[in-house]
Design a protein that fits this description.
five-stranded parallel β-sheet, 7% strand, alpha/beta, globular, single chain
């Protein structure tokens, strides 16, 4: 299985990266951009694997079978560093550590590669720490930055990187990937790919988790019963609860495992009070987990509102004459009745209200429940 197999529907990108891995157009810094779900980090990982592939024949690099390809795809290769944050931003200290790591010569591969998956989550002063390292890298170092759009990265960084622009793959390609790689039933794969709007990671979660599919459908159906302020407040509470439960379900088990592993590595006693030195390290871990939990809830709520937005997107498609396929095909009859009771202008205003709530939740300190309640009041069906 080639490292490029995950990049279905990205033929121009694959051609560009294949050529570079074979020496045609290779440069020291790359910027991968594309909407969420387009596979930015997957493209960077595949490119890293192809660059350090063990194959002597350049046309075969990215084989996916050699030791280097397997360890890079598994994120355990000593010469390839993957950086992602579960906090709000990448800190300046973390950036300095990256610069130090980038200065090391590769231990076994051809290249020392730094993949920053959340380049848009760096403050300006943090990005400036990376500037000189990206501008004048050591001879065997390659930087790969990932962000939703070029505008999310400082122009001083952007101008020093070769762009790689990805798009969302067709839903059919995502469904085919779920069937071939994950063994998902074709009908479920098709439904998950459409519901995820071609976001590969979300589609895989929906395909594997029936409860996640049920939670999403509950979210999408909310507008059908939204009449009056009381219903709006209840909807807001339920949306926040859905997002919080989903985030906590993935965090609780991980937090417990991390704490158990830390206590074991410290040689902590099985019972009784921990020594002060151990308590401080446990406290530091718990603080990190709290920051991660906050971002997890924010990200989960943003995904929930994106699911809600798909309802109004489909309503607008119906109102405009079904120019494109619906995301929520299962609700066509209900959405047609809903669409008949409003106008495209009203639907667009409701979509703007959802997007405003998303911005408030992800970029400010507004309490999520207050932001969602304000949004819900704008969605009440007259």
């Amino acid at each position: 299985m080639s490292v490029w197999d995950d990049l279905r529907g990205q033929a121009p990108v694959v051609a560009q990266l294949r050529a570079a891995s074979q020496g045609d157009g290779l440069t020291h810094a790359w910027l991968f951009t594309g909407p969420p779900g387009s596979g930015r980090s997957n493209a960077a990982k595949a490119f890293a694997a192809a660059l350090n592939c063990d194959q002597d024949d350049v046309t075969l690099r990215g084989c996916g079978e050699c030791a280097s390809c397997r360890t890079i795809l598994g994120e355990t290769h000593s010469d390839v560093t993957f950086v992602r944050t579960e906090k709000v931003t990448i800190t300046i200290d973390e950036a300095r550590q990256l610069v130090s790591k980038a200065g090391d010569r590769p231990a076994s591969g051809r290249w020392r590669i730094i993949v920053v998956e959340d380049a848009d989550r760096m403050a300006e002063r943090t990005t400036n720490v990376l500037l000189k390292a990206i501008e004048e890298p050591t001879p065997r170092t390659i930087w790969m930055l990932c962000a939703p759009s070029p505008a999310d990265v400082l122009v001083t960084i952007r101008s020093r990187c070769r762009p790689v622009t990805l798009r969302l793959p067709p839903a059919a390609d995502v469904a085919a990937l779920l069937v071939s790689r994950d063994g998902v039933d074709p009908a479920i794969a098709d439904r998950a790919a459409r519901a995820a709007q071609s976001h590969i990671g979300i589609a895989r979660r929906l395909a594997r988790d029936p409860e996640a599919r049920e939670r999403r459908m509950e979210t999408v159906r909310f507008p059908l019963g939204l009449r009056g302020v009381t219903a709006a407040v209840m909807m807001a509470e339920k949306l926040v609860k859905i997002a919080t439960d989903e985030a906590n379900s993935s965090n609780d088990e991980r937090d417990a495992a991390e704490k158990t592993a830390l206590l074991a590595s410290l040689g902590a006693p099985e019972s009784g009070t921990l020594p002060p030195s151990m308590r401080s390290q446990v406290k530091q871990l718990e603080d990190e987990q709290k920051r991660r939990a906050k971002r997890s809830v924010t990200d989960s709520l943003d995904r929930t509102l994106t699911d809600l937005l798909s309802f109004y997107r489909d309503v607008l498609v119906i109102q405009m004459g079904d120019a494109v396929d619906l995301v929520n095909v299962e609700l066509r009859s209900e959405m047609e009745r809903y669409a008949a009771g409003s106008t495209p202008e009203i639907t667009l205003a409701r979509m703007d209200a959802i997007n405003t709530a998303r911005v408030r939740i992800t970029t400010s300190n507004v309490a999520p429940l207050l932001a969602v309640e304000s949004m819900a009041s704008s969605l009440i069906q007259q």
